[in-house]
Amino acid sequence: MLEKLLYQYFGYSSFRPGQKEIIEQVLQGKNVLGILPTGSGKSVCYQLPSLIQSGLTIVVSPLIALMEDQVYQLREKGLPIATYINSHTSFQEYLHRWEQIKKGKYKLLYVSPEKFQQKNFLERLKKMKVSLFVIDEAHCISEWGHDFRVDYLRLKKSIQELGEPPVLCLTATATSFVQKDIIHQLGLKSVQQVVTTFDRVNIAYQIIPVQTIEEKRRTLFQSLKQLKGAGIIYVNMRATSEAITNELKMNGFYGIEAYHAGLSPEDRMIIQQQFMREELRVIVATKAFGMGIDKKNIRFVIHYDIPNSIESYVQETGRVARDGGQGIAILIYQQGNEDTVLHLIDSEYPEIGQIDWVCQQINQHLINSPIIFDFETYSSLGLTMEKLELILFYIEKENQIIWRREQTQFVVTKVMNDPIMPQIISRYFFIRKRKRIKDLEAMRNYITGATCRREQILRYFDETVKQKPELCCDICGLKQLPFETGEFQEPQREAFHWQQELDRLLPLREG
């Protein structure tokens, strides 16, 4: 029965490992935590049940580009069952989409996690029959995951307010500790866990050590000359993304563009779609690129900079060869590159003086007397929204405040008379930094280790290698590139007007 529906709606003749088991548990109304590797078809695990069940399926997604792409892909398959609401949705579109949801036009609603902080949004949702609550990239809910988001921790209360519908948590990378923390943070009971292998047997792993930045660049250029097909080059900083892209273009490479969070949403969307349509061969990107991108024929990922954790590395390399063909993950390692990552880790967290200032502002207020932290004030002190959010999160953890974010403002209410101690809040950040540094050390040990790369990765996730593929890694004797070399041929295409292109790429304007 399920196989028939899978073919009818999605054109697949069989399920991938883990998919059917998750779907069967979901249809029985059970809470499920699914750990499926990147590219294993996690979206089918909730899209198919949404077509079978009555009611609305809510999908919480951390990236706007991801949810827009999912809606677009469904419509391309002839399934106009989904829409999305996020910070880019205009008020007019917001109202129109709610009307369509109430009429039953949509079975799937993709939502950014911060929307659950808005009372109006949650009140509207309470009036709907929510049959399934999906949390995509569920590792974001764990403080100890590699991409923690404060907004994800609010989801527990939202689920309770919606009458505790069945919950499906999905992620590609979570250690056993993070898996337990996801369940704990959501307060889920009787959770069915479906964990497939982390082993991507069709990906070969290669570490190339270099001594200087010049050798590092030469190695990158040489790799691109040899490798065939589409690929992603990962870097840690926006400036590096731009510099490497410009240098590659100056040296005769084409079909290459930079991608990072500093680009406008329109530019990011255009670059992403050009890559999907084979109009670009390579994206030089920060970690902002790749999550939820369903491009199956990526043949290689090159890490030009050291990743900050093994979890990040596995997620990013997992974007290779989703079509089942052969791919390779190359990491160019220059000793000392860790210093840049350490600097980035340090810059993510507030300074002691900034923590003191926030605590002082709250301490000066009476209980139940709201205080507003406006953007102009806290940004003038060097605080970003993300840093202030973390400070408030840890003060809330001490049960001393309640707070909410409204656009760029934070509304905070003090609920205890006891003074907030900056030293206690600073301690939380110390623990977080120590964990991040430990993750980086594990990544460096992987790079410099003398044992099989695949064995090291799987051991990190409490798994063992069942059978090594012929093309495994450089430690096991990878003597050749795992596929034919050759140059990328830029496709011939007619010139087009950028506004027309944007209109084509934004088919989701409704009303």
TrEMBL record:
Keywords: ATP-binding, DNA-binding, Helicase, Hydrolase, Nucleotide-binding. InterPro entries: DEAD/DEAH_box_helicase_dom, DNA/RNA_helicase_DEAH_CS, DNA_helicase_ATP-dep_RecQ, Helicase_ATP-bd, Helicase_C-like, P-loop_NTPase, RecQ_Zn-bd. It holds the Pfam family RecQ_Zn_bind. Signal peptide: none annotated. Residues 219-370 form the Helicase C-terminal domain. Gene3D superfamilies: P-loop containing nucleotide triphosphate hydrolases (3.40.50.300). Residues 23-192 form the Helicase ATP-binding domain. GO terms for cellular component: bacterial nucleoid; cytoplasm; replisome. SMART domains: DEXDc, HELICc. The keyword Nucleotide-binding applies. GO terms for biological process: DNA recombination; DNA repair. CDD domains: DEXHc_RecQ (cd17920). The keyword Membrane does not apply. It comes from Tepidibacillus fermentans. This is ATP-dependent DNA helicase RecQ. GO terms for molecular function: 3'-5' DNA helicase activity; ATP binding; DNA binding; four-way junction helicase activity; hydrolase activity. It comes from the Bacteria.
